[in-house]
Amino acid sequence: MRAIRTTARETLEYVDVPTPALGPGEAIVQIAHVALCGTDLHIWEDDYASELPLVQGHELSGTVVAVADDVFTLTIGDAVAIDPLISCGECRACRRGRSNVCPRLTVLGCYTDGGLVERIAVSADRLHRVPDDVPLDLAAVAEPASIALQAVSRGRASADDVVLVLGAGPIGLLATLALVDLGATVVVADVVADRLELARTFGAAKTVLVDAAETFPGHAGSITLRELTEGEGPDVVIEATGVPVSLENALRTVGAGGRVVQVGISTRPAAFPLNLLAFTEVDLLGSRNSTGLIPRALQLIAAYPAHVRELITHRFPAQDLDRAFRTMRDRDQRVGKILIEMPVS
């Protein structure tokens, strides 16, 4: 069968690989769609902790075409979304239900070969049936939606909360959708006006256009938040940009006793006065991957399919994967989720 392998910086090869064998506890999935995210771009640019060569693709949907004899939860023909996380199941984190931060964690398409291939063998417990009313292309967004849900869960957000989301990229927008679904009041800040327009359609009560050259919250941001929180600051801030100064902004903005969730990823250091944490007992929380939230993500997609579809700004056949990556890093285009239509030929 055919696969797409990233062999070096910005270098793809379309190769023949063996058809996967069906092992105990596994199912074989014919891949239908692969969604791309910033991690994929970094791997393609050879700027990530992955070792090349690698078959990328971790945001995946497809159809079950074979099932091992010891698997009773799936049948041939099931539409599924794939949870790409593979944890050890034995370490302290795994034993405590935190398999998403397992020290020996691997991720399909990031650290081991993934879904840019015709078919893939996957442990059945990593496969989740797609609701009948969710098309397979939207099901590929379940993995990033689960990451947004993890951030919302880490922040312990509730219907009574005012939540500030910093960054209106796909994760920030999906977090906004999940928060609105909870009943929370959401303010979204970004440096791009078009993204904020989309955030309003996702249910944001207020949006703040941030001048990238200035420190948020600034005058307009302060007024917006004061209107909604009686001057006390939001209950939760979700930092979804990965920009170091944005974390400091989050800590300066959050209300006393509030929670700041860092879901945006960067290797750059952040600096802030320690008293921002101590004086008001702010909880600073990391958020990585998700703790088995793909099923909840599929429910969110089923409830808001039109919103999720708006996130998909580009579609490419698998043969144009190189062009998809180059589009992804083009700052002159508005790029949300890019969807790769499979199979490879």
Task: Describe the secondary-structure layout.
Elements: E1 2-8, E2 11-16, E3 26-36, H1 38-44, E4 59-67, E5 79-82, E6 85-86, H2 92-95, E7 106-107, E8 119-123, E9 127-129, H3 136-139, H4 142-154, E10 162-166, H5 170-182, E11 185-190, H6 193-201, E12 206-209, H7 218-229, E13 236-239, H8 244-253, E14 259-262, H9 275-278, E15 283-286, H10 294-303, H11 305-311, E16 312-317, H12 321-328, E17 337-341
Helix pairs in contact: 4-5, 4-10
Describe the structure.
There is one protein chain. This protein has 345 residues and is α/β, with parallel strands linked by helices. Helices cover 29% and strands 25% of the residues. The chain contains twelve helices and 17 strands. The strands form four sheets. Strands 3, 4, 5, 8, 9, 16 and 17 form a seven-stranded mixed beta sheet that branches. Strands 12-11-10-13-14-15 form a six-stranded parallel beta sheet, sandwiched between helices. Strand 14 (259-262), helix 9 (275-278) and strand 15 form a beta-alpha-beta unit. The longest helix is centred in the middle third of the chain and has 13 residues, at 142-154.
